[in-house]
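DATA SHEET
Item: assembly model
Revision: 1
Owner: S.N.
Input lines:
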Amino acid sequence: MKYPSQPRITLLHGDAATELKSLSDNSIDLIVTSPPYADQRKHIYGGISPDLYVEWFLPLSAELLRVLKPTGTFILNIKERVVNGERHTYVLELILEMRKQGWLWTEEFMWHKKNCYPGKWPNRFRDSWERLLQFNKQRKFNMYQEAVMVEMGDWAKSRLRNLSDTDKVRDESRVGSGFGKKIANWLTRDKAFPTNVLHMATECSNRDHSAAFPEALPEWFIKLFTEPGDTVLDPFMGSATTLRVAKRMQRHAIGIDIQEAYVSRAYEELVEQERQLVLLQKREKYVAS
Amino acid sequence: MKYPSQPRITLLHGDAATELKSLSDNSIDLIVTSPPYADQRKHIYGGISPDLYVEWFLPLSAELLRVLKPTGTFILNIKERVVNGERHTYVLELILEMRKQGWLWTEEFMWHKKNCYPGKWPNRFRDSWERLLQFNKQRKFNMYQEAVMVEMGDWAKSRLRNLSDTDKVRDESRVGSGFGKKIANWLTRDKAFPTNVLHMATECSNRDHSAAFPEALPEWFIKLFTEPGDTVLDPFMGSATTLRVAKRMQRHAIGIDIQEAYVSRAYEELVEQERQLVLLQKREKYVAS
DNA sequence: GTTCCGCATGAATCGATAG
DNA sequence: ACTATCGATTCATGCGGAA
């Protein structure tokens, strides 16, 4: 039996498209990332105009296509913002352009953010979902579906728990949903496969750093698309949620960020604390093995 | 005070794009429809190839743009099918092309089909969500948000009893402008505005029509975008779910279907039962007033 | 130790105002 | 006219202190 080696954490400080050039072809099993959204987080990333978003992203996705293994998967968390009262179309255009690069648009998972930003506007309600686009290099890719199966009882229970009290109240006030009855049906089976809808709250007020997405999100995809010893990449690491989860799950991990503060913080948390350190200078490569 | 007239049901038998030509410009307040999916329900509608879907749909959306009032809304329920292991891109292309026709892509609601039974294929899980695309003719359109407010969770009750200091402070800062006019909002705040994610179970067991369109779905949009006495159109009527709900809610309704069986069944249910009938021949116009 | 309750805070959006 | 900034709006969640 082969034991996976200790997870190796690699941190790169710099522009994602540039830093990716140092990675080998066909070396990554899973890419999970949440790039800066158009015109968001200007103070951190400078803000990318919606009209230039596709143009900005394509060189990066070309590199990602190169470094991903043929059996690997790319999960892209993204959502278009409202511009002049309309949803902007850059995400749609990005999908079409990435297909021209050679990517296959295999699936679109939906992330239902139970605690989305509040607000009320004359023509729109709160936006409580984001896209989780799945891209692949070929039709056959690694997918370990059993790894994300849930016990039927637990699943039904957690489904109910995940619905939150608010949803339950709302459900009951709705006509003819029939949801409760279906739960009873599911209880007769042992295990169930999930669907392509993920219900997760954002982790907003967590300790020091607020994560763009909850740990459960990369965890789910890491389970589904990799095995221990595989390599996970996040080219927009931010607060290192993906890397933290990957390490805990015995996967090698590579993180890139243009903000040195994020890289050094990830270094302290994921590398230095174990005294497995080879710390180089700013804009250099940090490696722990 | 004006009382809305009895809901008027108009049924048209024939091709949607053709039959729409008999409707006046700017006469419809809300269009809610679920068109035949590409290559699906082939036995009924003749099947539209995914590659030709956009081309097939655009003449129809042009007519819909003409008949919709400037303040009206078009809700399109659609989901791309999987072709050769990939999600097909016809929905993305359709959105881009409809914008060229003059439509505004205001929002994308998400329909989460909760009772979708867990299942799987080798490379994907069960698809349990569909798009509900919202299109408009102009940025200002009719939206009656209060009509779809939902009960808050129980947790909110305690919050109501004791307004937090934060909330009080926010209120005081607002008093300056309008003598605390908004205070009433907080004290009566037992309802919240919904989000753009709709949780509704499908209704699977309906007669012959395979589309499991729950009544709660058109009901929600009819409440949100129309008032009693307004006119609702469904150019792919099918089993007449949208019309049935519209009639019950005191909205005039127009339904079109290429299948005579659907038209005559809708006639029997929605018109003849009230003996308000003017039944004409096949491929003619059925009207009850 | 549980449970309860107050509290801060988010990948937001709109309309008005200012340059 | 067109862009940049600012104030107002709003609610689910997890944390931490209190009962």
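QC remark: Chain A touches chain B through 54 residues (CB under 8 Å).
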